[in-house]
Structures are given as C-alpha cells and as structure tokens.
Amino acid sequence: MRTEELDRLLFPMAPGCMWIKKLNEMDVSLEYVTWLNDPEVTQYLECRHQKHTLESTRSYIRNLTPSYMLFGVYLEYEMIGTCSLNAIDRVNGNAYIGLMIGRKDLWGNGYGTKTINLVTDYAFKRLHLHKVSAAVYSVNPASIKAFEKAGFTCSGYLSENNIYNGRYINAALYEKLNRTGEVLN
Asked: Which of 7-16, 44-53, 140-149 has the highest mean pLDDT?
C-alpha cells in the first residue's frame, strides 16, 4: 500500500467492519454522484440544491480547504456514504459534523450512529478537538436518533435556519464534548 493510501486510511479494515477514510477525487464514483442527486437521500442536506456530476464532485473534493475534511464511509470494501468535519476551528478546538448514508437499503441499521462515532473519535483522538457539533433539521427524526445514540446532547435550536419543502424550519443543535480533560492551548 502506498504512503498516501496509508495516510487516508484512518481505521483498519476487517471483514464486516465499518471504517472511514479521507476522500480524494479518485474515490468519486457514479454511485456516489447518484446519491448526491437522489432527492430522498439528500432531502435533509444542503447539497440537494444543485445538480452534481462526476467532474463537479471531483472538483469540489480537489478544492476543499484545510477547515473541511470529507470522508468515505465503508462497510467492508464498499463505500456506503460520506461524512465530514467542517468549519474546523483548531484554535478553539471545535468542528461541525455532517453525514450521508447513500445506500438506502442500509438505512435504519445503525450505520449513521456508527459513522458519527467514527468521525467523532477521529476529531477527538487525532485532531484533539474539544467539541463536535451538528445542526440537524428538526424534521429529521433518523438523524436526531443517531446523534442521541452516539452520545450527543441537544443544546438548543437555530430558529428558522433552513428551508425545507418551501418553508423555514428549525435546526436542532447537537453537541458532544471531549471529556479527556486535555486543554489544547
């Protein structure tokens, strides 16, 4: 395995195992682009507002800033979704998490919660962040359940934060703190 592949591999793969790795433009497949263009998969995601192509998605990944990390979510050898750490603030030790399980046949099986746990573990142990947050559409019970199962707590709401089905809806703000006692500065 090449060094850059080792750098992208964050958790070792084992049969039946879920793992994540940083995405690069070569990881973009037609299946991934199909998920991005599927209204059911993206109904609670901001990426639903535009049409995606292989090239536009590869360009997006190529142009990510250091404050945004995009990961592929894998079940054994197959990518089943993506997740991100974004608005990474290394000075204050916090970031936001987002996720998408693209394989609809796997919904409701705990993969969202497992993904949240993998990314949060990476944020705390590898990036040494103090807090990971998520702004979840208040009309998305599956994500709310996944974040709560992953140990996140609702700290409040962002009033009329997003447009969903032609009306403004609230976003629930979920947070998890790194309780190792480590102070970054």
From this structure: 140-149
Q: How do residues 45-99 score in pLDDT, each as one tens digit?
A: 888 889 999 999 999 999 999 999 999 999 988 999 999 999 999 999 999 999 9
Of 36, 27, 100, 96, residue with least CA distance to 67: 96
Whole-structure pTM value: 0.86
Domain boundaries, the chain: 3-129
Cα R_g (the chain), whole angstroms = 16
Q: What is the rounded CA–CA span in Å between residue 146 and residue 111? A: 9
H runs (alpha helix) in 15-105: 30-36, 54-62
Q: Under CATH, which architecture does the 3-129 domain have?
A: 3-Layer(aba) Sandwich (3.40)
